[in-house]
Amino acid sequence: MSKQKGSHRTRRTLKDWTKGNRERVSRLEREGNSDEHFDAVESGYQRMKPRAVTIEGVGEVDSLPRGQVTQAQSGTYDVLLEEQQGVISCRVKRGASTDNDDATLVAIGDFVRVQPLEGDHGLIHHVEERKTLIGRKRTGRKKGGHQVIASNLDQIFCVATAERDDFRRSVIDRYIVGALLGDVTPVIVLNKIDTAPESYLEALAEDMLIYEELGYKLLFVSAKTGAGMDELREECCDKVSAMVGQSGVGKSTLVNALLGREERETGAVRESDGRGRHTTVGSEIFLIPGGGYLIDTPGLREFGIHDLEPQELDGYFVEFFDFLQECKYLPCSHTHEPECAVIEAVELGKIDQGRYMSYLSIIDTLE
Ligand SMILES: Nc1nc2c(ncn2[C@@H]2O[C@H](COP(=O)(O)OP(=O)(O)O)[C@@H](O)[C@H]2O)c(=O)[nH]1
Ligand SMILES: [Mg+2]
Ligand SMILES: [Zn+2]
To answer: Can you list the alpha helix ranges (DSSP code H) found in the chain?
Structure first.
């Protein structure tokens, strides 16, 4: 059950977008707060000063060179042009058009039409419809709306660390729902297994077995020791994947390990609260030796589900499917209703309790 993507979306300009808070963007740039990087990226084009003012003579956007966004940082986008025409650094044209409804105008992975300018620069004029995406509910001051983290990808690696005591299953379940919503396959990656004692890892593996039973891939890895990395490399093969997860879980370190070079900046975890600092600024796509493309994204403090009605959530928990029609009162939210078949299945152990708890915590966040 994936979200219907309308093929008939009307092309529209996002003029409203340009009303924004420029000050905030420059503050974000100064502070380099990468959790808010996405906000900055979205608003980046507000302060864009087009290098070429007129596009008379350009005509239809379809006549412009096509390319894919391979790097996104603070309103600047690297676009890899088709037909081996190289990479150009782009800003977004004021009033650029898009085939998407999301609050994010340009995201990494987008196919765009650009107007090349002098000196390997260019302007993005149009953003094509995203076939798949991973997105979240926008946070911060510009709350609401659908913030796109990456587009046109096959799968996400939901990275969590095996070391944390505050490891929360619900975060993984949230990413799974988010992935399914955007037609992306979730793969669960538990990193830093070198830091955990064997007994803890065994218990964790047992707890996580449910995901394999549900058909999701689960990898235990260590970017540090290389354990499990061959499997991860194999998962990248012939696919476009993105690393997502909280700051400090080791996404950039994993990317570097897969690349065999220090391409992405990584950071130490803050001692005080065990949380990572935001060391990665911007998103970038890499070609993995051995095959596949991999996108590194900055860490996210929150990953909220956007664009889902509470009554639709059960469609994203595959193990509920067998029971959905058996509830006495339909529609049923499976939270409190009497003779709810889902609740009964949880009580009978036919549905994993942890997954059901995640369902409850997610449904609470949906309007
Ligand atoms: N012990 C251990 N530390 C790791 C591992 N992977 C990453 N780290 C460390 O975790 C910290 C955060 O890594 P980073 O890649 O910046 O995380 P990101 O914010 O998710 O990109 C760095 O100090 C890394 O050296 C691992 O497998 N084992
Ligand atoms: Mg990083
Ligand atoms: Zn029910």
So the answer is: 22-31, 37-44, 169-181, 198-213, 229-236, 251-259, 341-347, 353-363
